[in-house]
Amino acid sequence: MRILILSDIHANLEALETCMEFAKDKYDRAVCLGDLVGYGPDPNAVVERARAATNVLIRGNHDKACSGVTDGSDFNLLARLATAWTRQQLTAENTSFLRSLPQGPLLQEGFQLAHGSPEDEDEYIFGPGEAHPVLHKVTLQITLFGHTHRQGGFAMHRYGRFQTIRIPPSEDGLVHTLALKEGARYLINPGSTGQPRDGDWRAAFAILDQDHRQVEYYRIGYNLAFTQTKMMQAGLPQPLIRRLELGR
Ligand code: ZN
User: Under 8 Å CB-to-CB from 40, ≥6 apart: which residues?
Assistant: First the structure.
C-alpha cells in the first residue's frame, strides 16, 4: 500500500492541485494531517477538493479556529485576521465539515496521524528537544505529523541513536527517499502543501510505501503568482502574501 500524505494545505488550491496532479497514479490511499484552511484564498474549494481526494483527515489548529471549535485568541494578529476572513468565506456545509474532523492522534493500519504531536495536537515538534521524548514514548514504528510546515522528521534507532531527517535541496519531484529500518521509530513530516516554512516555497508532500518500507519526500513548484494575486484581491494581509514566496 502506498499512502499519499498531505498536511497544512492552508486554503492554497494551486499548491493542492499541483501536488494531486503530480502524485496521481503514485498512491493507493491519501491522508491529510490537518490545517485545510487558514491563511490562503480558497478555503471552500480546498475543503471540497481535500474531502473528495483523501480517505482520512484529522483537524489542525486553524481548522478549529476557522470553524469556531476554538476562538483563535492564541493566534498572532496576522493569523487572527486570516481566520476572521476565512470564517466569513466558509459555507455552512464546509464549516460543519471542519467542525466534524477528528482530533489526532488517529490510528491507522501500521501508523498514526497527528497534527502537532501525538501527545498534544497543538504542540510543535521543531527539533530534537521536542522529538526525543515523543520517540521515547511511542510504540508504533511510524507517526506522521505536521504543524511546523517543515519537511523532514526525526528517528530513534536501536540502542537509542537519534537522527534528524534532513531533506537536501533538489530539483522538482522526488527529493529524498528514507529507508525505514527494522527496530527504529519515526516521526515523519511531509512538509506543508500550501505554506512551507522551511525556506523552500515549493509545495510539499510525502508518500509512505508500506511494501518497500520507505518514505518518499516530494517538492513541486506551483503557480505561486496566481495564489498571491487572489490573496491580494481578497484583501488578505500583505505579510501573508509575501511569506509564501519566501517559504517562511
Ligand atoms: Zn498549519
Answer: 9, 10, 11, 12, 13, 46, 194, 195, 227, 231
pTM above 0.70, yes or no: yes
pLDDT tens digits for range 80-137: 999 999 999 999 999 999 999 999 999 999 999 999 999 999 999 999 999 999 999 9
Distance from residue 213's CA to the centre of ligand 1 (Å): 27
The CA 8 to ligand 1 mean position distance, Å, reads 4
Distance 183 CA to ligand 1 centre (A): 30
* DSSP secondary structure letter of residue 148: S
- List domains and CATH numbers for the chain: 2-246 (3.60.21.10)
In DSSP notation, 109-120 reads TTEEE-SS-SS-
Cross-strand pairs, 111: 108
CA distance 142 to 184: 9
* CA 182 to ligand 1 centroid distance, Å: 31
- Label residue 153 left, alpha or beta by phi (over 0 means left) and psi (-120 to 50 means alpha): left
How remote is the CA of residue 163 from the centroid of ligand 1, in Å?
Answer: 24
Q: Which three cell numbers mark 29?
A: 490511499
Q: What is the largest CA-CA distance in the chain?
A: 54
